[in-house]
Amino acid sequence: MPLRLDIKARGGGIADGAGGNPRGSPGTALLQKVFTQRSDRVKSVELHPTEPWILASLYNGHVYIWNYVEQSMVKSFEVTDLPVRTAKFVPRKQWVVCGADDMFVRVYNYNTMDKVKQFEAHTDYIRHIAVHPTLPYMLTCSDDMLIKLWDWDKGWACTQIFEGHSHYVMQLVFNPKDTNTFASASLDRTIKVWSLGNPTPNMTLEGHEKGVNCIDYYSGGDRPYLVSGADDRLVKVWDYQTKACIQTLDGHSHNISTVCFHPELPLILTGSEDGTVKLWHSTTYRLENTLNYGMERVWAVGYVKGTNSIAIGYDEGCVMVKLGREEPVASMDASGKIIWARHNEVQTVNVKSLGDAEETDGERLPLAVKDLGSSDIYPQTLQHSPNGRFVTVCGDGEYVIYTALAWRNKSFGQALEFVWGDDSNVFATRESSSTIKVHRNFKEALTIKLAFTAEAIYGGQLLGVKGQDFIVFYDWATGKVVRRIDVTARGVFWSEGGSLVAIASDASFYLLEYQRDLAESVLASGQEVDEDGIEDAFELTSEIPEKIRTGIWVGDCFIYNNAAWRLNYCVGGEVTTLYHLDKPMYLLGYLASQSRVYLMDKDFNVVPYTLLLSVVEYKTLVLRGDMETAAEVLETIPKDQHNNIAKFLEAKGMPEQALEVATDADYRFELAVSLGLLDLALELAGQSDNESKWRQLGELALSNGQLEVARTCFVRAKDLGGLLLLHSSHGDAQGMAELAALAEASGKQNIAFVCQFLLGRLDECIDLLVGCGRLPEAAFFARTYAPSRMTEVVKLWQGDLAKINPKAAESLANPDEYPNLFPGIEDALKAESWLRQKAAHPQPAARYPEVEGAHMEDILSRVAELSLNGLPANGTPAAAASPPSPPAATPAAAAEAAGMDDLLGLAQQEEVPQSHGYEAEATAAEAAEEDLFAAEVADDAFAGLPDYDAPPSQAEAPPAAAAAPPPPTFAPPPPAAFAAPAPAAPAAPAAPAATSSGLTPEEEALLAEDDDLMGDDLGLDDADLADADVNLDDDSWGLEEEKND
């Protein structure tokens, strides 16, 4: 079966149904419709010489400028209500000049859209305008049978009138070879040639049987020709020197409305009211093609010198078509000699003629152009033989082989296409769509009859013949099929040795390796080969999703330019971009002695670009696995190419070698990070001090567990988010405090807020919100976490809101003024005070497993459950109750109380300093010392509890500062730890004094005891817990049952 490369790519062929061969004669060349615009009847069209614009004048009185690249209208002029029959660009003045049926000429600036001038030029319809190419002159012709010359430098004065026609004057055109003369076409059936300064015609050409509508001069240098079209449906070609009609073209079925010689191609274009545009060969006068886009009558054809594109004006709009290809017809041999064809003229240059002169990449070479001769046929292709001794020109269905030095005819024949073989003695021609002839030593040696329609042929190691959606390779010697490949080929490029081939398709290209020894052995053995050829003859090595314009091989390196006009090369499937081209360029060849690849633009300018052969050689050796030889070649490669080499090595899965070769610090840093070489990456990052690099390194260090390095990197990167993650996950309170200050200084208020909140610094959180102007948020935060500051923040909020909406500000309630609107505020203030005291002595993060869950206790509920009206738990007023003084706490009881308080994390311990450098945990001795300190603090915590067994007289009087109404007395039953008999205390304790929280020490101690969630310490047994239906192991807090209900 055939080798399938691109089974989805089918079809192809010529755009717009034009048919023909893309490398055939100019009339059957590739036609591509690039622009279509529906509109009212278009009476004239013109292309701007530098902008991608089409100027069209319409029968409805409007003039439009369309951009054919962007497919849009860029300018619109409402000239008049009558038909505008002609409009012209004057690029050197940025003008549009138009003439209409109201007899006026109007001049507009197409940049500003201003009307520059308007004047009445004739007494009847204005038919045509011609602008002088260099002088400030403009010619107009009209149905009043006059031709007038206008000079805009003299205020648009009419400087001359030409009389001589006896009917409407339909068109004018200046002679491009002699701009002092012009020709006119009239419905009086004549063509007249005039000279500026002479009011009478120089000559009159007669031959048409009806009125002449259109004329044009041939712009080539070798023939004094003029073409005309008339209502007799004929097109005539005239020699205006001999006044003879040398050819009549008959093919249209209606009046001829427009004619022109194409400025770049050997074509005569004729448009007719029959709706067609016909393309005639300007040398053979053979009809090459007919265009019909179904838009009714044709009225005008426009062109511009330097391009192959034409614009056509119809009854129903405008169409722009690109004819053929703009690729220059040129070829370069292995010695640097370039030959190209400008029309039929052949010229040559040699890039080595510059000697030791410096060549700059991308700059045009100042080469001396020599005329080599002329071609007997119009060149469509031109190519050197493999040894450079011969040059073949193919076109117009013929080929001619010339000697490269003297340009002498060596051989010729009939051919639609011509290709050279694997040596200069073998070539092939495609004579028809089914016949290929192979010549050896300039004699026909073999004829291949095809069972399919051949669309193109390709030379090289094998003869390639392109079908509709496949290509077949034939052996040059025997004509046998070597391999059929299913791919819609657009080009075939063989390497010099013939072992590699690139096949270009519409959207990608394929690199294949040709197994020549295997194929030759099969062919030599006489084995029967089917229509698909030898199965293992080719091996697909790479597919590159790029469209190739032109390409050449240099060793195992394929150099090409793509559809985006980038100059790339590919080695082993790895693509490297050499240069970005600023305009369309086409590859000529590569000179190893110059280490340069040469390209040409459509204007035949030769431009060099550097490509070191040593780089290509190194990559080739790496692909072959010969690293020792590659290392030797690497020493010869300039340092500025090493990064290119390193990227190639990385793409081939050798990042360690790439790191050794790379010279760019940024690239080496990326490689070091990818390889996990943290030390090297740190060194490289320190050289540039780039924040993104430090952030990248911080993430790498974090993933490797090197937290101190990660912290340093995040600090240098100013990555506050990373520091927040690091400090919060590691429980680094000191780091969080530093980060809060850094974030606030950097304006990262959100991070600063999170840090302060996690540290429990409520006042700083409120101050931060107030400082940022987030007063509503500050008020609600204070209501939730710090009710003691609520009044202060609400007043600030009221003052700020009063500037915008006083009524809204008055509606805000302040707890000082409206305490009734804040139920439970007293409880909240007491709970806040108690919590602030606890927050002043934080626990180390290492003890979290011991106190997990203690912070979930609802303090407000605990405060509310205690006697808030001065009553103890049994309902007896506090003033009447005389609780006995409890005995002094024994060491065992104190230790037990301290243990409970310590378990819940409520012991009044001093803040344990945190290690900022994440050293190892504290030693066992430090841990023992910490436990001893905790026990001592626990004793102090319970030392202030009242002695319930002591008589009332022994209690000391409260201090004078407590003269205000006392706070509610908390008198729950004494804990079991204090009910047990104990030795007599040496002295009665002093009466408890009020603390800063508003609670007595007894109340604080009891609240701390109540905070203990252990059932035994609350005096509850298992039965009580069962009755309460409490599951202490349930972490869902009963939410699951609510959800299920």
Explain how this protein is built.
The protein has 1045 residues and is of the alpha+beta class. The chain has 25 helices and 56 strands. The strands form 14 sheets. Strands 1-45-44-43-42 form a 5-stranded mixed beta sheet, with no helix packed on it. The chain starts with a strand and ends with a helix.
Class per helix and strand makeup? alpha+beta
Count of distinct strands: 56
Most strands sheet:
5 strands, mixed
- Helix tally equals 25
Runs with pLDDT <50, length 5+?
A: 6-24, 867-994, 1009-1045
List the helices and strands and how they pair.
Blueprint (H helix, E strand, L loop, with lengths): L2 E2 L26 E8 L3 E6 L5 E6 L3 E6 L4 E7 L5 E7 L4 E6 L3 E6 L5 E6 L5 E6 L5 E6 L4 E5 L5 E6 L6 E7 L2 E9 L3 E6 L7 E4 L5 E6 L7 E6 L3 E6 L4 E7 L5 E6 L5 E6 L4 E5 L5 E5 L6 E6 L5 E6 L2 E7 L6 E3 L4 E6 L2 E6 L19 E5 L6 E4 L5 E6 L2 E6 L5 E6 L2 E4 L5 E5 L4 E6 L2 E7 L6 E3 L4 E4 L4 E4 L6 E6 L4 E4 L5 E5 L4 E6 L1 H10 L12 E7 L3 E7 L2 E6 L3 E6 L2 E7 L5 E6 L4 E5 L5 E5 L2 H12 L2 H8 L7 H10 L3 H7 L3 H10 L3 H11 L2 H13 L3 H11 L2 H11 L2 H13 L3 H10 L3 H10 L3 H11 L4 H13 L3 H5 L14 H15 L8 H4 L7 H7 L25 H13 L20 H19 L33 H4 L21 H10 L11 H7 ...
Helix pairs in contact: 2-3, 4-5, 5-6, 6-7, 7-8, 8-9, 9-10, 10-11, 11-12, 12-13, 13-14, 14-15, 17-19, 20-21
